[in-house]
Amino acid sequence: MQMQREVVHYPTLKTILAIEDAVKSANNPVSRNWILAKMPTKVMRSTLNLALDYMERRGLVLETKKGFIWTFNPSKKLEKAEGEGLEV
To answer: Of the four listed, 21, 68, 82, 83, which is most buried by Cβ atoms within 10 Å?
Structure first.
């Protein structure tokens, strides 16, 4: 059973995008401390954890033994279909 934890502060979209940029730009797996150091503003660790959990559930990042890595790979076929599609 998963424990329900109390959320002190939800991440903003700006915070999630900053975390995304930090992980995406890294060439190697990165730790939570490394991500916190790369943030343009202060981010609470619990907020970072919540954002990383969300990103992992959405398939954007993967937590390995060495840290977080960027895993999202947009489909070229879907991008082409959106470009050639008919807008209604």
So the answer is: 68
